[in-house]
Amino acid sequence: KAFFHYCEFYEFIEKNPFDKIQIRFREPIILPKTIPLQTLELFLSTIYTQRQLAPTPYQQKNALRDAAVIELLFATGIRISELCSLKPCDVNLNDNFVLIYGKGSKERKLQIGNANVLKTLNEYKNTFSTEIESCVHFFANQTGKPLSVVTFAGGLLLLFGAVTLGTNLKDHNGPGISSGAWAMAGGVLIIAVATYFGTLTVG
Fold it and tell me: How far apart are CA 45 and CA 109, in angstroms?
């Protein structure tokens, strides 16, 4: 079509035969990248192993929160920013659903059908009841403040990279939610691993 338009413009031909033909060439659809099932299983098992091996009550509590966050992320596919903004009233563990307020204040209702996910979320809610009440957010850190989007996203990606690349995790306390320095230190790795998460929102 472009060639005949060129020929008509420079008067090589009198009339473009494509003038009255409506043609729309379909561009190939690029599917989003997905995380292999084996990698997800390894990632989740590492989270729970960290919880079992946590040497102090503080680290055990962190590991429980990390597991709850990761389980909800993978069970619903919500953005990290949406997860961190969840209020206690948005998470209904009696009827097994989560209310999400996304872009443009659009409300989505996501059902949680996995019993293990619900068990972890209930355990987290009971353990962090004081912190949840203090910050009025469902996910909180141990200082009673809402979970930070940037710090958690960085720590999550760093941990994901460490698991998939076989890095030793013995010195890590979890997905860096309580440590901005750890997330900053993994800046280069975060950028590389972020491609696995497609449209993951970190800010």
Answer: 28
Distance CA 175, CA 153 (A): 8
For the chain, the three-class secondary structure string (H helix, E strand, C coil) is: CHHHHHHHHCCCCCCCCCCCCCCCCCCCCCCCCCCCHHHHHHHHHHHHHHHHHCCCHHHHHHHHHHHHHHHHHHHHCCCHHHHHCCCHHHEECCCCEEEEECHHHCEEEEECCCHHHHHHHHHHHHHCHHHHHHHCCCCECCCCCECCHHHHHHHHHHHHHHHHHCCCCCCCCCCCCCCHHHHHHCHHHHHHHHHHHCCCCCC
Instruction: Give me the mean pLDDT over the 104-115 stretch.
Output: 86
Q: What per-residue confidence (pLDDT) applies to 87?
A: 93
* Residue 87 amino acid letter: K
- Between CA 187 and CA 158 the distance in angstroms is 8
Q: How far apart are CA 178 and CA 61, in angstroms?
A: 12
- Whose structure tokens read 């460490």? 162
User: Model's pTM, two decimal places?
Assistant: 0.65
pLDDT digits (tens, 9 = 90+) for 128-172: 999 999 899 999 887 888 888 776 766 676 666 666 655 444 444
**pLDDT (tens digit per residue) in 23-46:** 676 777 887 777 777 877 887 888
